[in-house]
């Protein structure tokens, strides 16, 4: 994560990107995703982990965009299952505040989520999304780093990292992040298109 730490203290020229935060860091159709509340016991945690392992294996092997998208949606559901009604309520309120662009309120709510459960990766990822929306890339990168520490396979956070790298004109770093997305989620069309575009740009700049 040396790249992230370097970015946190450097000032770089921003460039535009065709991708949006809705395509990357946050789950698709967030409003329609209902939280799954497993029983608060060790058996539920083990079962959830086993479910994720099966889903990620399925995602890795599936070459079809439609069916892999359904698998990705199931993974998002597992990620958003905090196991705490209080956290789920705070997350729902934060989502409403973000859609209303009440970023101060959303940040306060997500801060509470992280305090209540600092091991809940989606709390960090959702706050990374908030900072992204505010164009506060330094803080977004810091929360992405924490998300990936807790869940290295988080293709949403990796996609967010790639988009920020592009906006900071760090094309090679963006390409590396997109490659990591495709290792986890090979049928991801956004990542596929981004890799093709970046490879063409980088090849052209070297000739």
Q: Main traits of this protein?
A:
single chain; 207 residues; mainly alpha; globular; disordered N terminus
The helix fraction, in percent, is: 55-70%
**β-sheet strand percentage:** under 5%
* Parts with pLDDT < 50 across at least 5 consecutive residues: 1-24, 28-42
Major β-sheet profile: none
Helix and strand arrangement:
Blueprint: H1 2-8, H2 42-61, H3 65-79, H4 85-99, H5 103-116, H6 121-133, H7 137-150, H8 155-167, H9 171-184, H10 189-206
Would you summarize the structure shown here?
The chain is mainly alpha-helical and 207 residues long. 69% of the residues lie in helices and 0% in strands.
Task: Describe this entry's structure for a reader.
There is one protein chain. The protein has 207 residues and is mainly α. It has a domain at 83-136. The chain is 69% helix and 0% strand. It has helices spanning 2-8, 42-61, 65-79, 85-99, 103-116, 121-133, 137-150, 155-167, 171-184, 189-206. Helix 2 (42-61) packs antiparallel against helix 3 (65-79), helix 6 packs antiparallel against helix 7 and helix 8 (155-167) runs antiparallel to helix 9. The radius of gyration is 17 Å and the shape is globular.
